[in-house]
Amino acid sequence: MTDIQTPVDDISEAPPAKPGKPIAWPLGLAGVALVIVGAFLSWSYDGQILNDLSVNFYPNGLQNLAIILAVLSLVLLLAEKGPLVKLGSWVDATLGLRALGLGLVLYMVLVLIAISVESDGLINVNPGGYLTLVGAALIAASAWMLPLHQLRDMSEARMPDWFEIASIAFLMAALLFTAAYTLAQDEAWPLILCLVFAGAAAAALFRSGVMSFVGHAGQRHRKVLTLAAFAAAFLFPFTQNGDDTNMSIAGAVLVFSATAMGLNIVVGLAGLLDLGYIAFLGSGAYVAATLSTSAFATIGWKPPFLVVVLLGACVAAILGLIIGSPTLRVSGDYLAIVTLGFGEIFRFSMFNLDGNNGPNLTNGPNGIPGIPDLELFGFNFGTDHTIAGIDLTRNSNYYFLLLVLIGGVILAFSRLNNSRIGRGWVAIREDEKAAEAMGVNVFGLKLLAFAIGAFLAGMAGTVKAHQDGAVSPDQYIFLESAFLLAAIVLGGMGTIVGVLLGATILKVLPEKLRFFLEYRLLLFGLLLVLMMRFRPEGLVASRRRKLEFHEEDEQLAVAVEEERLIAAEEAK
């Protein structure tokens, strides 16, 4: 039997790429020109839909998005053949162009469908819309005719420091612009089109290898990347023109992200499946509510808020120890069932602590409403403020406070992840018996994971109580725990950026896609199924877990090759 060949990783041993067709490059340029020209023309006869696409030579926001995709396509075409050919030696312009071409075609098809639906027929589509669609199709066709290239190792792609720092800053500015413009869309079709635009641009950057370069540049300039990310997040309220709705969503995202980061310690690092984690967020919120100056608060002691934050976090950590001590003797499905039961026990306890079935601590199902706004160092978070002529609302004030909180949570997670404790958690996740045999204190580290994760969730809960102005048991149901776990799976277990991305997606989309109210859970389930099928490691894969999936793929390829060779021998 011949030797079995494992998949080739060295690009020097990979088969040569097929040559492209000569017509591909000029066809792509023609497509770019048609998209830009078409975007300057009217797309719709009716000016009341899609933010008015009926004006010639004055493109509106949605037309500008098509122009941006066309300009990105032009850059990749010039990297394939033209003045930017040196860039093409590092990035795969063809793969990026394919993503842009298909995304632009989908974008224009949805535009025509939206015009047809909103204005009763395709007859209301003006020639500019059709011209842009034809240009998008030409870009997509040319991308499939161009030759594929072999990506170099982007860790070797070193540029001057000023260029790498400028690239990081430009990417963060683009993210800020895209987020601000997308959240500003209140109607269904413009919002969907913005999401398609963002998906096409992101796919092109990842498939071409540009994001790999930015990632390596970020590793070399980690402080710059961190500062740029927080600067973009800090500037977000200044892009909302006093819109309190979007800032309320942004604040909810930060609370959700901080809680998910705590759960990421338990699930992503230690590998413990917790289905009742929302109870720790609720415990922190109830501590803040009962110690507040609300008329419905049940405890007379009114300490400063900084003390309340520590108390809420410590109470949540104690609950984590209480649930962890007897239950961490079990694992797998049994642990999931026990933690699910703990979440329900917490919710029903909040119902019963009403003065009739137990001591009056939570006012039962009525909860504790009327929680006043925070006031720290003379600053009232419930008062609107104006900075540089821009109105900052109540939710903007809480957003800045939560931004400081999430910064502390991220710092704690990153330090733990890179510490001896974090390596112990990972060892337990990979093989508990082997970790115990190597001297790892398995039970102690599991208990510590529960306590620290609950501590971080309790801190977020104390701020959430004041931001919402009320707490009630109905806020802390099992579905919220399921969404927290889904955010980690979707984003990437054991990562920081992945969890933030997953939490943002699962918190923003349900709020903005309220016109799909009856189908939101269906879309949510479909998204998770697709993720498990095509990218089980999550949107942002952990380096350790990515290596595991890569090794599994290699083993599968070897097994398939063995079966093929055995079948060939038997046939002989």
Query: What is the rounded distance between the termini?
Result: 12 Å
pLDDT average, as an integer? 83
The total beta strand count reads 4
N-to-C SSE series? HHHHHHHHHHHHHEEEEHHHHHHHH
Largest sheet: 2 strands, antiparallel
Our count of helices gives: 21
| Integer-rounded radius of gyration | 27 Å
| Helical residues, percent | 55-70%
Membrane topology: Multi-pass membrane protein
Pfam families: BPD_transp_2
Transmembrane segments: 23-45, 57-79, 99-117, 129-149, 161-183, 189-210, 222-240, 246-270, 277-299, 305-322, 398-416, 437-461, 481-503, 515-534
Subcellular location: Cell membrane
Describe the structure.
This protein is mainly α. The protein contains 21 helices and four strands. A two-stranded antiparallel sheet has the order 1-2. Strands 3-4 form a two-stranded antiparallel sheet. Strand 3 and strand 4 (390-392) form a beta hairpin. The chain is globular.
Topology:
Elements: H1 24-39, H2 61-80, H3 85-88, H4 93-118, H5 127-145, H6 161-183, H7 188-208, H8 210-220, H9 222-235, H10 244-269, H11 278-290, H12 305-327, H13 333-352, E1 375-376, E2 379-380, E3 385-387, E4 390-392, H14 394-417, H15 420-430, H16 432-437, H17 442-468, H18 478-491, H19 497-512, H20 520-534, H21 543-571
Antiparallel strand pairs: 1-2, 3-4
Features:
66% helix; two-stranded antiparallel sheet; 572 residues; 2% strand; disordered N terminus; mainly alpha; single chain
Short description:
With 572 residues, the chain is mainly α. It has helices spanning 24-39, 61-80, 85-88, 93-118, 127-145, 161-183, 188-208, 210-220, 222-235, 244-269, 278-290, 305-327, 333-352, 394-417, 420-430, 432-437, 442-468, 478-491, 497-512, 520-534, 543-571, and strands at residues 375-376, 379-380, 385-387, 390-392.
